């Protein structure tokens, strides 16, 4: 019997490689057609959601006589030494919006952001001032009601309350 040869290889070797290449192509195609709709779905959710999708870690919330400090680490695990602090003087707060649906408090006004590249060693990357900016505080802290009442007293501003999904409060009036 004559053995068929292709490029110096037996027909069995050529067949196995062709089968493996076909399997890889099939797997890649299936992964693409399943993965792409899932990716697009989550991308569309991110674009439709109010605010951002992300988690903050190592959060602090400090109130003193003159200002509110909100400190946090971002969701980027690769820069674990980085730390952010929003500093908002009470006299620069223009608007407070409590959203009971999302359980958040949006604070609008002029603020500073301090970004530490290495918080433990007090290495500041930069400081930036913002005009008419919004920062959001998630109300999972204990005594959130006392915190809101204290902010009302310190700023002299009445908190606007929303109890539903409402996208109107995305800018400072």
Q: How many domains is the backbone divided into?
A: 2
Q: Give helix and strand order, one letter per element, not per position.
A: EEHEEEEEEHE
CATH topology of the largest domain: PH-domain like
Alpha-carbon distance between the termini? 89 Å
% residues in beta strands: 35-45%
The averaged pLDDT comes out at 79
Secondary structure category = alpha+beta
Number of strands: 9
CATH C-level class of the largest domain: Mainly Beta
Largest sheet: 7 strands, mixed
- Poorly predicted sequence stretches spanning 5 or more consecutive residues: 169-173
Please tell me how large the radius of gyration is: 27 Å
What does this structure look like?
The termini are far apart. The chain is α+β, with helices and mostly antiparallel strands and about 170 residues long. The model is unreliable at about 170-173 (pLDDT under 50). Strands 3, 4, 5, 6, 7, 8 and 9 form a seven-stranded mixed β-sheet that branches. The chain has a two-stranded antiparallel sheet with strand order 1-2. It has two helices and nine strands. The radius of gyration is 27 Å and the shape is elongated. It has two domains: about 5-50; about 55-160, PH-domain like.
């Amino acid at each position: 019997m004559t053995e068929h040869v292709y490029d110096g290889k037996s027909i069995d070797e050529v067949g196995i490689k062709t089968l493996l290449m076909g399997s890889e192509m099939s797997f890649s195609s299936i992964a693409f057609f399943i993965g792409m709709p899932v990716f697009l779905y989550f991308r569309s959710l991110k674009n439709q959601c109010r605010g951002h999708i992300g988690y903050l870690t190592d959060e602090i919330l400090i109130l003193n006589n003159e200002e509110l400090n909100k400190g946090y680490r971002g969701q980027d695990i690769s820069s674990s030494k980085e730390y952010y602090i929003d500093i908002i003087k009470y006299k620069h707060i223009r608007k407070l919006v409590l959203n009971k649906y999302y359980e958040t408090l949006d604070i609008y006004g002029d603020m500073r952001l301090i970004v530490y590249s290495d918080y433990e060693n007090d290495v500041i990357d930069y400081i930036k001032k913002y005009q008419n900016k919004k920062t959001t505080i998630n109300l999972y802290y204990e005594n959130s009601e006392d915190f809101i009442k204290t902010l009302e007293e310190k700023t002299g501003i009445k908190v606007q309350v929303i109890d539903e999904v409402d996208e109107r409060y995305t800018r400072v009036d």
